[in-house]
Amino acid sequence: MKNHRPKLFFSLLLTVFFFSLNAQVKNRTWSIANADDLKKDNITFYKKTPKYSTFINIDVNQLNQQLANVPQRHLSGKHQGVVLQFPNQLGKPESYLVQEASLMEPELQEQFPEIRSFVGKGIDNPTAIIRFSISPQKGFSGMVLSDGKTVFIEPYTADLKTYISFINSNEDGPRQEFICETEYQPSSYDLTDEEYTAQRNANDGVLRTYRLALACTVEYAQFHGGTVGSVLAAMNTTMNRVNGVFERDLGLTMVIVANNQNVIFLGPDVNSDPYTNGSGIAMLGQNQDTLDAVNGLGDPVYIGSENYDIGHVFSTGGGGIASLNSPCVPGSKARGVTGQFSPVGDTFDIDYVAHEMGHQYGGNHTQNNNCQRSGVSVEPGSASTIMGYAGICNPNVQNNSDDYFHGESIREMWANISSGNSSVCFVGSPTNNVAPVANAGANYTIPVSTAFVLRGSATDADTASGLTYCWEQTDTTPATMPPQSTNNNGPLFRSLDPSISPDRYMPPLGTVLSGSLATTWEVIPSVGRTMNFSLTVRDNEVGGAATGSDDMVVNVQTFSTPFTVNTPISWPANSSQQVSWAVGQTDSSPINCQTVNILFTTNGGLTFTTLASGVPNTGTATITVPNIANTSNAIILVEAADNIFYAVSDTFAITDALSVEEYDIDNLSIYPNPNKGSFNIGFNPRSGESIRIQVYDIRGRIIYTKAFATVSRFDEVVTLSNAQSGVYLLNVFDGSQKVTKKIIVD
């Protein structure tokens, strides 16, 4: 627990066309709002306005009309639905194919038809999934999961007319304190060690549905309006978001049980419920007793053990605590608590509730710091994924959890729900969704203090357009945090949001191009060690997504020197130049890099030009400089063609091309040429002005310059001090007249 925190295409085409009329009017439901027009006493948003946000007005009544005939997803194909648009954090509309996804058992939904939940698949962005809820009591709340940062849409004003669309960032400030504990519940697996290790992905094409008994204290009920409808609407909002994450990462969903109103304690007397609101440990047992209670006839008083699969209680205090591997287990399956002073919004829903329920389904803490109490401490510092302690235990990676589970958390929970304690009580629904197949590539050995890039791939029998990739380190040993380059164990690299790119630069390419091999939470090792990595691929399907994963190992050679690239001072455009790099031990075993590629950029790595490919890894190669305009931002990148490491030069200048031009200078002679660094120049001057001699090396640097008075016959010996063998350019000026010749020093 944590501190609260062609046929198919035609069918789809018809669907989009059929609902095009709806698409014509969809923007009537929302518009951009002016923050200056909002009255402060009407603002109820629960935290400081996020840096990346937009205010919007939503006409909930109009939206309800558009949603009136949306098909239920369990009765519809995944290509059926209504096309609607919703704004992102910049206020830009994005389109989704929307279906209703009720979070309640049918009997409860019939009692509260106005409290509704929906899911939509991104049309503009196939990786996007929108989850939103709507009710008279709580208005509209939404969440968009995608290949970028999650977008949240929350009520901003008490009249439920103005909303805020935002993403979280570290500039938004820290979150409230929260304490999380876990209670160990052994899980029995009828598996060999190899089979257990293989149980790591939601890949069997089944959507698992668990019945959730969700209780609350009086304090929670009063916070949310003190009526069954208002409390249930708040619970619906939270669980819609929680389900969004569990469905995408684990193919798991939850529905609130039919008689759930029996455990919504309204008060107003805070002593009228069976819970100790401020004590998570006390509520852990109290919730189990309450949900399982029977009368003298053996009938359920509130819920009944046979009527739910997982239980949880919401409160306004006591932090979080949960029993590991407990769903489906009699006497333990209700042992889950989430309490926070302000039990509302994205932090409560994702950082705290999803975290605690993650424990119940078998996920341990992932942080690797002083708060680490787990054997899967695979994330540096406080961690940043759901099962970490983001923002509540120093050193903090960031203030809020990112709304996805680490690949190791998925492995733990999947083992439990597919083969362990929690594999015996769910209702399974075939999704016909084939899981993606991930390929993390081969294992490699690299030199110390050298950047590298992890390159993966994946295939999907259904579609590959919506795949996202997430590379994560999986080393668990406790280590100094923030990570140091000298750490010979533990994690060095944080987890980053799933991306449409199958590659990850370690550290970010921009960091390396700026001259560094580390950020605070992504550090290249300067010592020999082994690093284990896993690639998790998500297909981001609605109604039961699937994942695939694969592992690889990067060994850092103990007795090695860094692979580096030498930096030119400047190069003339369109000239022939020599690139040089320090090979070190990279051309021998165990690294065995025999060839390299040479790339060039002038825009900070946005684009690269290949100057040479597959050249021998000997430390030098001759290339032709691109014929470009003057720049001081040129960078050379040399990468292993048969490995994963690379290095870059510092920035340097590209100057105008040096040309060899013939002018009419009488009787010009230059001899000997080639020479040993000393040669004669003779000609008959005509300008009557001074004479200048200049010599440039091939990089464009002046290595000799001298002025002479005018004479009738010019004869001088030029000696180049310490000149290396190579090609040089000689400029002879007779006043404003110039001739350029090549000089070869051998």
Give an overview in words.
This protein is of the alpha+beta class and 746 residues long. The chain is built from eleven helices and 44 strands. It has a nine-stranded antiparallel β-sheet, sandwiched between helices. Strands 10, 11, 12, 13, 14, 15 and 18 form a seven-stranded mixed β-sheet that branches. A hairpin with a 6-residue loop joins strand 8 and strand 9. The radius of gyration is 33 Å and the shape is elongated. The N terminus is likely disordered.
What's the short story on this structure?
With 746 residues, this protein is an alpha+beta fold. Helices cover 15% and strands 33% of the residues. Helix 7 packs across helix 9 (345-360).
Radius of gyration: 33 Å
Distance separating the two termini: 73 Å
Structural class: alpha+beta
**Strand order in the largest sheet:** 1-2-9-8-7-6-5-4-3
Number of helices: 11
The percentage of residues in β strands lies in: 25-35%
Low-confidence stretches: 1-27
Principal-axes geometry comes out as: elongated
Describe the SSE topology.
Blueprint: H1 7-18, H2 20-25, E1 30-32, E2 52-58, H3 60-67, E3 82-87, E4 93-100, H4 106-111, E5 116-122, E6 129-135, E7 139-145, E8 151-155, E9 162-167, E10 180-183, H5 193-198, E11 206-216, H6 218-223, H7 228-250, E12 252-256, H8 280-292, E13 310-315, E14 320-323, E15 336-339, H9 345-360, E16 367-368, E17 379-380, H10 407-419, E18 427-430, E19 437-439, E20 444-446, E21 452-455, E22 457-459, E23 468-473, E24 503-506, H11 509-513, E25 518-519, E26 522-523, E27 529-538, E28 547-556, E29 564-565, E30 570-572, E31 576-582, E32 595-601, E33 609-616, E34 620-624, E35 631-640, E36 646-648, E37 652-655, E38 666-671, E39 678-684, E40 691-697, E41 702-708, E42 714-719, E43 726-734, E44 737-745
Parallel strand pairs: 10-14, 11-12, 11-13, 13-15, 16-17, 20-28, 30-37
Antiparallel strand pairs: 1-2, 2-9, 3-4, 4-5, 5-6, 6-7, 7-8, 8-9, 11-18, 14-15, 19-22, 21-24, 23-27, 25-26, 27-28, 29-31, 31-34, 32-33, 32-35, 35-36, 35-37, 38-39, 39-42, 40-41, 40-43, 43-44
Organism: Winogradskyella luteola
Signal peptide: 1-23
Domain Secretion system C-terminal sorting: 670-745
